[in-house]
Please model this.
Amino acid sequence: MRIHRFSALVVPAALALLGCSGTTLPNAVRTPTVIQPASPPDDGSPSKGGARGNEHAAALEQLARAPIAARADRSHTFAIPLPDANHWTRVNYWGVRTAVGFRYGKSHHALVAAFLRAVDEKNDPRECIKEFEAWAKPFTDTFDMEVTFEPPRALAWNGKLVDLQPARAKTATLAARDTYSSVYAAYPAWPGHCLVVGVAVPGKDDEARSVAVRDRFIREVLPKVEVTSKEPPKEE
Model:
């Protein structure tokens, strides 16, 4: 499989590989009706795109302002709220197993991925993040990334505190030079399994909007990730 320039999209912190040549999957999975009614088929493009050099800026503006609705994984075990939810395309990420993956627009204006990680029965979010970072490190070592970690945060989720790690990353290869605003959070979702949700937003010479979109995910998306099943996903 040929890997294009988005192969280095990463959710940093030693880090979660998010963008290796995404392969679009059929968008036939419906969000549970308690969260959102079934949505029409999506074409993989932002609802208000812009053109040429303005395309990315217009897409980020849409992500910063559009209403938020939830999208579910294939097993209907959890749901992630997304801005402009109908225009995210479900994808696989080459070489990385995910519980679900999405891209916004055919030009990958933003990426979201969720990872299922096995942990002990206590399911401490801090231990989940450590395990996740250890698992991700061999992937991230493949790419020459300069990563700046912002102070870690905690958010309230279902009466618990969830660890959240924002970061900024910069690719240092000739094939892909760009900056990315990213964040990931670890949720004690099921006994013996945690859920890690990561977001990566390319800068593409528009870093201020990239950070603004990332920060909206921190404020309005990650605190509202919902577990809808007592059992973890059967498939990754």
In short: The chain has one domain: 5-24+52-227. The longest strand covers residues 160-171. Residues 1-42 have pLDDT under 50 and may be disordered.
